[in-house]
# Entry
Amino acid sequence: HFSKFEPYRVKTVEKIKTTTRQEREKILREAHNNMFYIKADDVMIDLLTDSGTSAMSTEQWSALMRGEESYAGSPSYYRLEKTVKYITGYDEVMPTHQGRAAENILFCNVVKQGDIAISNGFFDTTGAHVQNNGGIVMNIPSFTKETIFTDAKFKGNIDISKLAELLVTNSCRVCFVIMTVTNNIGGGQPVSMANIRDTSAICKRYNVPLYFDACRYAENSYFIQKYEDEYRDKTIVEIAREMFSYGAGCTMSAKKDGLANIGGYLALRDSHLARECRQDLILKEGFPTYGGLSGREMETIAVGLMEALDEEYLEYRIGQVAYLGELLIEAGIRIVHPTGGHAVYVDATSVLPHIPSLGYPGVALCGALFLEGGIRAFEIGSLLQGKQPNGSEKAVGLELVRLCIPRRVYNRSHMRYVADVHKYVKDHAENYTGLRISWESTRLRHFTVKLEKI
Ligand code: F0G
# Structure
């Protein structure tokens, strides 16, 4: 048995600009300690997101050349439609410029004022689109801030007993349940098929539609194959198809498991609802056979969706995330373990234990990683989730930093470097202070907030 290697040869390279600590100190100050204000050219290892950051394959670049740019009825649309139907079994496929546009189109048709939408974990834009349409969001993950650090395997699950309770008392107000696979705000953890099946059964009983936020459905399917005995001999696409069979439709950001740089879609079973949605699609995105995308982009998504189902790719992909996780554990850092599909979630308080929650230890860790190593990461803690509807601030009690790994972009030496920088920051924790907010917007504040050191 020889050691494993990344199953890709590099064909085009992008030079990483190196910076000095002194330069990064200035960059960080000028960015108001907010990673979103830093220019990508000033970042050495960019782990801000796995969204739209994948390296395209030679097959995708070739498909791009085939892109057909007719306004109506492009063959590129039909290729995308065929692929999405093959994977999901949903007949109604509406391309959108990215995932949140699919959410917008669906939710403006299914959410009424005062309705409740339930999830194992709403991504920030997904929840915001429900609220934008007058709805109320309820997150009922199965994990708590205590249990997320246990070694349980499907910590992305929805809390089934809470769901049943909510539907018994409130089913007439619940407009839908949406299952996020994998659970991005819940440590990137997978959802089991058993949990999906149970959720679907409860939803059917109360006549509430179940949708999937399917961004990382291929990675989730891989975990089902690895962890759930009865799926060990099933292919990834068979698992994905079974999962989608339990739902009424999905929203998708093809910037993740579509291995594309932009794009998404809404796929539905119900043709009546699809007819309604298409009116909004035309208004907000574009004609139904391009919906905000060029033919070229639809081609790259159609190919990328199939490549993401390849088991060799998934093994490498999820293995890389796990590898970084193991290195961090060796360095004495607490992470959500076993790691999920797209990112390692670090407990920032295990690196910077002296910073209280409302000093935003996750933001402080992101700052330290950038300062010492030019690494860009993303806080999922009190800055992202601490603002209450009444304007007050509440510590969420779980201060995570997400090290999100772009697909097919970095290799093992980059991962080792990231772990080395973490170890340095942990060993010099006293050098880093908490932060306070000097300016914030009213919605989705983390994108544009300005912070200063305390
Ligand atoms: N749902 C989930 C679970 C997501 O993670 C994202 C995006 C979206 C929906 C929205 O998709 O960006 O194409 O509009 N997540 C990225 C991230 C931005 O960094 O996790 P989009």
User: Anything to note?
Assistant: The first helix runs from residue 21 to 30. The chain has a mean pLDDT of 97. The longest strand covers residues 174-180. Residues 68 and 307 are 21 Å apart (CA to CA).
